[in-house]
Structures are given as structure tokens and as C-alpha cells.
Known about the structure:
Shape: globular
CATH architecture of the largest domain: Alpha-Beta Barrel
CATH topology of the largest domain: TIM Barrel
Number of helices: 12
Oligomer: single chain
Number of domains: 2
Distance between the termini: 16 Å
Amino acid sequence: MNLATLTDFSREWAFVDVFRHSRPWIGNKDWLDTLMCREVDGHYPAGRYVAIWTGPGAVEIPGFDVTRIVSNRQGRIEFEVRPADGGIKLSIPAERRDAVRDPHVWMPGFENPKSPFHPLFFERLAPFEVIRFMKWQRTETSTTRAWEQRARPEDIRWSGEDGVPIEVMIDLANTRGAHPWFCMPHLADDGYVRRFARLVKERLRPDLKAYIEYSNEVWNWVYPATHYADAEGKRLKLGSPDFGRFYAQRSVEVFRIWEEELGRERLVRVLASQFVNPWLTEQVLTWKDAYEHADALAVAPYFGHEFGQPERAPAVASLTAPQLLDRLAVEVDGANRKLIEAQAALARKYGLQLVAYEGGPHLVGVGGAENNEALTALFIAANRHPRMGEILKRHYRNWFAAGGGVYVAFVYVEAPSKVGSWGVLEFQDQPVGDAPKCQAILGVLQKR
């Protein structure tokens, strides 16, 4: 399972201290504010929250979903929350911001817990043997170069640009008994990679392996990593495809550092490629025999991308959800299955496991079509339709029948919107019976 990005509007309640999710300080010369549990349609726990802090500074908890201040004394405020869409706001005087230190906002019943993870978040991860932390690491937009830039456990919030602390990700893997999948930032120097690997060696349970990938989708021009890899490939005169060759070359360099620190037997070294482009896959695998230094070929076997193209949007938006699902079913057993088989053949040819770093329905408008409200409504309805679960099951059967291995679903909990209906669950406490994609995944896992 891929985890979602940690934000103040996360529907994944990863942590019982909701200040860990909070928004960076906003405000003016007088007051600084931060927000938590914002715009989540009331899907977070009700009851008595506790805010604590050290230092002589003042803290206020004004309005929004807060219905009553129960008690207020220096260093501690208890307050009642009735969840809606406003969330929780915490305010401090701007001129004395340094006088408020180590703030926490505990969910009801979780003050000073033994574990930082919310029990429901933790419990619903139980079926999954691999957890991919790409979003928690903020890999897609990472500017991290040096070890000194990393997020630390003592940071007041874990929702910043540097992502969730490595120690916290390792602790989740250890307590959940899941193999962690880490993505090395595309700008990270060798020192960062080595220190990351050493920390994993020190903290990760010896019975767990670490999946290691250099960045994420270093073929997708939406992300800075692809532009960086292309520029580096050209600078080094690697030849076409410059980004693909640099990606393969840097991946192997990263793998070697991890091998030196953790040992090959505890690693799954991942080379990733674009699912719809087997030609690129072969270029990546064969550049300087990169496949000889890897364990797995990773692709994202999404289906349905074509329905969000701007030239098709008006016609697609006129369909009913069942009609769109009919077309998705044809694709799953047609073009999508053929691409799975093509990528599986390449994995076999080069002696690699075939794994999915992401996958599932890719129903989202692009190139301006995301602003077509009828199209977005159709895509959300199709993702919620019971038949989506059956189509997903068929997709998974095709994947495993072709020789595919580990399949990392995308994404654990996220709200549907014009930028996609990616969530396996739409909110953390959604009943599984109302979540056809989650039902499909759990059904497949029970049979394997």
C-alpha cells in the first residue's frame, strides 16, 4: 500500500497527535495560526482534545469545529470538538512565537500514548506486506540534497517539505511487520543515501527487507526529477534517452551504497519504468547492464487514462457510470493485459521480479479536462460503483497470471476530486462495505 501525503487536510489519521499533520504557520504581524483536520467533511474523531506545550508563551484555540473550551491554563488547554469541515485552529502571538515550544494536540483518549500511530490507521494496514513511503517522503517535489536537511522526530510537525522523519517510517514498518519501500530523493548526495541506509540498518527489524528506488517516475515530465535526470544525462553525454540512462546509472550507484551498508540479502533493488512504454523499460534495464544490479522491475499498470484526455472529455462526460465501466472492463482484458504481459516478458528476459509500484483505475481529467465538472462527477461515480471492485479483481488476476509479483496499491486514504479518485478508502473510518476498491484488494489477499 502507498500512503498518502501527510497534510492538515489528510483523511488518513496517521498520528494521534494531530499537530504532526498541521499546516505551516500562517498569519500576520500579530498572530500566527496553524490548522488541523481541515476540510475533511467531518471525518475525524469527536470529543475532548488536549493541547499541551512548554514555554511561557500563550496559545489560543479559537472557533471552527471547537464547540467549547473545557479548561485553559498555562501549557494545557482541553477543548471539545464536533467534527465538521472547519477543523481545528491553534493560534499564538507572532511576536512571541519562540515562547511556545514542543506543541502537541492529542485526539480524545490518546494523551501521551505508547504509540504515535492512530489504532484505526494501524489496524487497516494489517493485510499489507509492503508499505511504500513515496508520498510521506514528499519524493515528487523533494529538494533534499544533504543529510542535514532531513526531517527529524523532534520537529513539531511532520507535514513539512522534507516529509515524515525516517525514524517514524521505520517504526511503522517495524510495528506493522511490513517491508518498507523507500524512495531516494533525486538530488540527494551519496552522503545522504549512506546515512539513510545506516539508519535503516540500525533500526529496521532484521526479518524485514527494504525496497529501494531512486526517486519516483523518472520518465514523467510533470516531476522535477525527470528534468534533472535529462539535464544530467545530457551533461554526462550519456545519449538518448538521456533521462532514462541517467536514471539507470544513478540507481545503480544508489544500490551499491545500500549494499555496502545493509547487505544485498536485505534489499529489493528496484528499477522502475513507464508501464505503457516497454521500449523505455529495455533501455533502462540494459544501460550499462543495470539489470544485473537490480532485483525488480517496477511499473504502474493503471487503466483508464485515455478517458481523461481533453479531446475525449465531452464524449466521455456524456456516458453513464455503467457505460464507462463497460469500457474499462474491455481495456482491462485487452490493452492493459497485453502491456502487463509485455512488461512481464522483459522482467523474465532480464531475470527480475515484476512488481507494481502503483496501479489501479486512472480516471482523471488532464490538460484542462480536470475542470470539466461532469467528467469529474462521472469518474467519482465510477470509482464508487460496486462493479469497479469486480473490474479490479479481474485486473489483479491478469497481473498475477502474467507472473506479476508484489502489487502496491495507490493510495491508502484520499478524498476524490478533480485531480483523481485515488483513495482505496475515501476517509479513514469509511466502512469497507462502502469501498469497492478496498473490498477487491482484501478479497484478492484472502485468496492468496
